[in-house]
Amino acid sequence: MNVSQTMTTEETLTCLHICLYHPDQATQPLYNLLPLSRLHKMSAEDPVRLGRDAQTCTFVLNDARVSRKQISFQAYRKAGSADMHFTVQNLSQKGKVVVNGRELGHLERADLEDKALLRFSRYELLILREPGESLDSFEVLFEKQNIPPSREMGMDVTFSRKSNKAQMALSSTTSSSSFWGIPSRSQASLEPAKPSPTSRGHPNEMPKTP
Q1: Are 103 and 33 in contact (CB under 8 A)?
Q2: What is the spatial distance between Cα 156 and Cα 139, in angstroms, rounded to a whole number?
Q3: Nearest CA to 56 among 76, 72, 33?
Q4: What is the DSSP string of 182-206?
Q5: Contact present, 35 and 63 (Cβ < 8 Å)
Q6: Residue 171, helix vs strand vs coil
Q7: What is the C-alpha separation between 119 and 134, in angstroms, rounded?
């Protein structure tokens, strides 16, 4: 009897790695509501919202100084390209969000490079994009960073309100996620996506004002 074997290959997913640092993270439970070191599968249509409000955010920081809705990541594809990229949006009406030295106003967006440094309140977030094949889904992975990413990357992130500029130098030798000690996909466990509390929409649509 002939037996035919069919090999099924699964599409790899683009991974949005988010490495967090806060100077008080060793003494305060800032991340106890986050799924650290666990992969979460998300629909490409759904925004990834981060803030202190569990009702409106996909992921929650246990910090009263953070805005109810602080930032939002949205997947998108550039014209003529199948690669999935991400934008970040400042959802906070009062809090600052700085992306690679550029300050975002309320509801302002910025495209993220494959490696980017975000800052708000006293947080530093190193964002790493690991490309995948799927057009419909992606993964989110949170990790705690023990050293400020700006220090590890050799950056001067002093922001000047007057000049609205920041001097910043990214080292190309630190682009690998393994350098930062982030678990590989095989090491991190996979969990289903949490349903988004907001309706789905086009990646370029802005969320409602908080």
Answers
A1: no
A2: 30
A3: 72
A4: PPPTTTSEEEPPPPPSS----TTSP
A5: no
A6: coil
A7: 29
| Segment 133-141 mean pLDDT | 96
Asked if residue 14 has pLDDT above 70, the reply is yes
CB 210 within 8 A of CB 91: yes
Looking up tokens 């981060």 gives 50
pLDDT score, position 191: 55
Other CB atoms within 10 Å distance of the CB of residue 26: 9
Amino acid present at 142: F
Q: Are 197 and 55 in contact (CB under 8 A)?
A: yes
35 vs 54: CA distance, rounded Å: 13
Confidence tier at 174 by pLDDT (50, 70, 90)? very low
More confident residue, 27 or 167: 27
Return d(Cα 107, Cα 70) in angstroms, integer. 10
